[in-house]
């Protein structure tokens, strides 16, 4: 479990994290989303004891990172995959980390196997592709078999195979009952990976929601197709619903749920060929939520 409580982090005049509070629970993948400069990396650095909070706190399994007795066995993190000495071999790099943390060296072979690097365990890291470095960073995070995992932008720069691999891995880690927090500035990726979303902008919480609730919140009515649109429009209007005629055909009903529309049509003997709830895409929802919170917003001719 990760608990962030009233966390604020200032760098001089810049407030990177501003009174942020949320909880990340085990058994789910939680996406940590926000535009560039929103404060995601800063929160993660404070959580991992790499930076001190100005006020408030970020706890892993109830304690501050710096107070954890066996940090690598409690929380594993992927922050910067480039940070490995290129002359080192993959196995030796992880072996060195394991020994420094009282983790049996046999664990190294296990994690290399899990991330698909067993075949290059004796190769120097300098020759690794970005995707391989990313896998090595994840192997390091998994070394202590931690309950909590924190990945900062793990899919950045990866090809589609690498992206899919990361997605499946984080889902598997959550299914094992671990707490998994994954940051990204791309909603498209989180939509496929996360169960819950923490969305921040300018260091503040914008939304703490399930992916499903967010889709519901940005519901755009119900698309209905019927061979008797005029009759259905009259029935819906009589029940206080709104009806629009969208460009693609059919009717868009607002103010009434799918079940109510179906029941009313049945009661009046009006056949329905389609009844589909419509949502804005999560990407649109995310853009709407974070507009005004981007650090380097493009000039848009004053539409806001
Ligand atoms: N060490 C630092 N010194 C001064 N300002 C910093 C420092 N680290 C971060 N900041 C500032 O704090 C704000 C939040 O940055 P942070 O890197 O946490 O955002 P982020 O959400 O991770 O963004 P990105 O997606 O671009 O990585 C930014 O305005 C950034 O310029």
Automatic annotation (TrEMBL):
User: Keyword set for this entry?
Assistant: ATP-binding, Nucleotide-binding, Transport
Protein source organism: Actinomadura meridiana
Name of the protein in its database record: ATP-binding cassette domain-containing protein
Under Gene3D superfamilies, the record lists:
P-loop containing nucleotide triphosphate hydrolases (3.40.50.300)
**InterPro entries the record matches:** AAA+_ATPase, ABC_transporter-like_ATP-bd, ABC_transporter-like_CS, P-loop_NTPase
The organism's taxonomy opens as: Bacteria, Bacillati, Actinomycetota, Actinomycetes, Streptosporangiales
Keyword Nucleotide-binding (UniProt): yes
Q: Does the keyword NAD apply?
A: no
Which Pfam families does this UniProt record tie to the protein? ABC_tran
Family indicated by similarity: Belongs to the ABC transporter superfamily.
What residues does the ABC transporter domain cover?
A: 2-227
The GO terms describing molecular function are:
ATP binding
CDD domains, alphabetized: ABC_BcrA_bacitracin_resist
């Amino acid at each position: 479990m990760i608990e962030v409580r009233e966390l604020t982090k200032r760098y001089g005049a810049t407030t990177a994290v501003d009174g942020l509070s949320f909880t990340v629970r085990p058994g789910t993948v939680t996406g940590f989303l926000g535009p560039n400069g929103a404060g995601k990396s800063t929160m993660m650095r404070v959580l991992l004891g790499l930076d001190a909070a100005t006020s408030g706190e970020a706890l892993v399994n109830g304690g501050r990172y710096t107070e954890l007795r066996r940090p690598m066995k409690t929380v594993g993190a992927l922050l910067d995959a480039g940070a490995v000495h290129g002359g080192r071999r993959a196995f030796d790099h992880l072996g060195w980390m394991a020994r420094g943390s009282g983790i049996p060296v046999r664990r190294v072979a296990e994690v290399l196997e899990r991330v698909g690097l067993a075949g290059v365990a004796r190769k120097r890291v300098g020759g690794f592709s970005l995707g391989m470095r990313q896998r090595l960073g994840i192997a390091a995070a998994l070394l202590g078999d931690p309950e909590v995992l924190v990945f900062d932008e793990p899919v950045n720069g990866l090809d589609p195979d690498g992206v899919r691999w990361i997605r499946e891995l984080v889902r598997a880690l959550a299914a094992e009952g671990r707490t998994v927090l994954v940051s990204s500035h791309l909603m498209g990726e989180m939509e496929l990976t996360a169960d819950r979303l923490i969305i921040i902008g300018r260091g503040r919480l914008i939304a703490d929601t399930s992916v499903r609730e967010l889709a519901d919140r940005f519901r755009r009515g119900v698309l209905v197709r019927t061979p008797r649109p005029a009759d259905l429009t009259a029935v819906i209007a009589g029940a206080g619903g709104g009806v629009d005629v969208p460009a693609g055909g059919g009717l868009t009903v607002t103010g009434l749920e799918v079940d109510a529309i179906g029941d009313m049509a049945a009661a009046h003997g009006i056949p329905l060929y389609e009844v589909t709830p419509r949502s804005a895409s999560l990407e649109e929802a995310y853009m709407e939520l974070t507009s005004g919170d981007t650090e380097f917003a493009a000039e848009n001719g004053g539409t806001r």
